[in-house]
Amino acid sequence: MYPGMEDYPTNLLEFEKRFATEQACRQYFQKLRWPDGFQCPNCGNKKAWLTKRDLYHCENCGVQTSLLAGTIFQDTKKPLQLWFHAIWHITNQKYGANALGLQRILGLGSYHTAWTWLHKLRRAMVRPGRDRLEGIIEVDETFIGGKRTGKRGRGASGKELVVIAAQKDGRKIGRIRLQRVPDASAKSLENAVQKNIEPGSIVQTDGWQGYNGIDKLGYSHEVIRDEAEVGDNLLPKAHLVASLLKRWLLGTYQGAVRPIHLEYYLDEYTFRFNRRTSVSRGKLFYRLVQQAAALDHIFSKDIYKRESDTNEIYD
Ligand SMILES: [Zn+2]
Q: Does pLDDT of 1 surpass 50?
């Protein structure tokens, strides 16, 4: 990516001016979705003409593609402009956005719509399997929620086990990844490591046996502390991330995070943490639109399905 490519409004006034029309939003989105120009998803051909219904008609194979197909905005009946407002709002909240606030700002008739939008956008905040951490990564786990103490090697009931991967950047923390895991077994931890860290990286852990196999997966494994208490007594960088995360959950969601929603919050926190030094809120907006464009669209029914597995109310 060359300088000048990251093009975004830097304040509300610029945002309002820039995205005053649906057409302006579509043009912006088009640049982020196809940075090298349109490419037919069917045959890869780069030439297309725009139909009256704003579909890209491939000159080679004749397949018509909509700008929003294959993004999280696919199937939306609302204008892209309204989505842009949602993204601007979310990325401008210092701590986190909630569905009620979003509903009010956007003037949405339905709370449920606001809630669904928020969850879709949270999912776009972290793209699993992409942008994995590399370099020297400290990995440890912590319990979130619940009151009871965890037992070694198992997820304690009422608590969720979360793997924290924190990249070392000198003495500071670089980027992080957070991954909810069912337990602290080797299988769960290895999965989490592979999802979030590039092979070839140095992975530093405590002496918990669940990490013993990761050197076989292409990582250099370093045990930097002999003791091992699952979910407790964290390595320093992971410990800092864990306490910041817990404080954020407490402050933003009053700690009332239900297990089924936890992954969304972890994604939102990761997004915010990894961009904490971004001076410009506009840059966060840009990133989130970009990631929304790159993410396969999320069927609302998937989100509802996850919901209906439980008796929870929407947050
Ligand atoms: Zn084609």
A: no
**Does pLDDT of 154 surpass 60?**
no
How many angstroms separate the most distant Cα atoms in the chain?
Answer: 66
28 Cα: distance to centroid of ligand 1 (angstroms): 23
Distance from residue 27's CA to the centre of ligand 1 (Å): 21
Indicate the pLDDT class of residue 28, thresholds 50, 70 and 90. Answer: very high
Say how far apart CA 231 and CA 152 lie, in whole Å.
8
Q: Measure 301 CA to ligand 1 centroid, in angstroms.
A: 29
Q: What percent of the chain has pLDDT over 70?
A: 84
Distance (Å) from CA 47 to ligand 1 centroid: 8
CA distance readout (Å), 7 to 27, 55, 79, 83? 12, 25, 21, 18
43 Cα: distance to centroid of ligand 1 (angstroms): 4
Question: What separation in Å is there between the alpha carbon of 288 and the centre of ligand 1?
Answer: 28
CA 211–ligand 1 middle distance (angstroms): 46
Q: Which residues surround ligand 1, an ion (CB under 5 A)?
A: 40, 42-43, 45, 58, 60-61, 63
Which residues lie across from 223 on neighbouring strands? Answer: 205
CA of 69 to the centre of ligand 1 (A): 14
**Cα 49 to ligand 1 centroid, rounded to whole Å:** 11
Distance, in Å, from the CA atom of 231 to the CA atom of 143, rounded to the nearest integer, reads 5
What mean pLDDT comes out for the span 138-165? 72
Q: pLDDT per residue over 30-45, tens digit each?
A: 999 888 888 888 899 9
Q: What is the mean pLDDT of the chain?
A: 84
Check if the beta carbon of residue 61 is closer than 8 Å to that of residue 92.
no
Helix (H/G/I), strand (E/B), else coil: 73: coil
Q: How far is CA 166 from CA 28, 135, 250, 307, in A?
A: 33, 10, 21, 30
Whether the model clears a pTM of 0.70, i.e. scores above it, the answer is yes
Element (H, E) at 26: helix 22-33
